[in-house]
Amino acid sequence: xxxxxxxxxxxxxxxxxxxxxxxxxxxxxxxxxxxxxxxxxxxxxxxxxxxxxxxxxxxxxxxxxxxxxxxxxxxxxxxxxxxxxxxxxxxxxxxxxxxxxxxxxxxxxxxxxxxxxxxxxxxxxxxxxxxx
Length: 132
What we know:
By secondary structure, the protein is mainly alpha-helical. It contains 4 helices and 2 strands.
């Protein structure tokens, strides 16, 4: 009986950690993306490509961390990470309403794109984790 209660507490404390992994991945992704400002000798397309490659690197890494936290329930981890990304994007927009002098007028699309992208990547990681 004591082992069951211990496991219940461990799972209870893992859920906020998975959620915070999602929030942290947003801040890490957007902070690294802000470092890639447009130098004078590059095109805007190359900066956009580097930022999306950053997203492609960070969100699956968060998915792997979530699957390590929940090895028996990777789909739950993917859901918690996706919700963490959703909340993290909203927090990032509230805390930093302008980036590089530009206002974020298209923030609903930014929220949707990051949430869908993170959800798909975390779901694929969870499915591959479940299959192995």
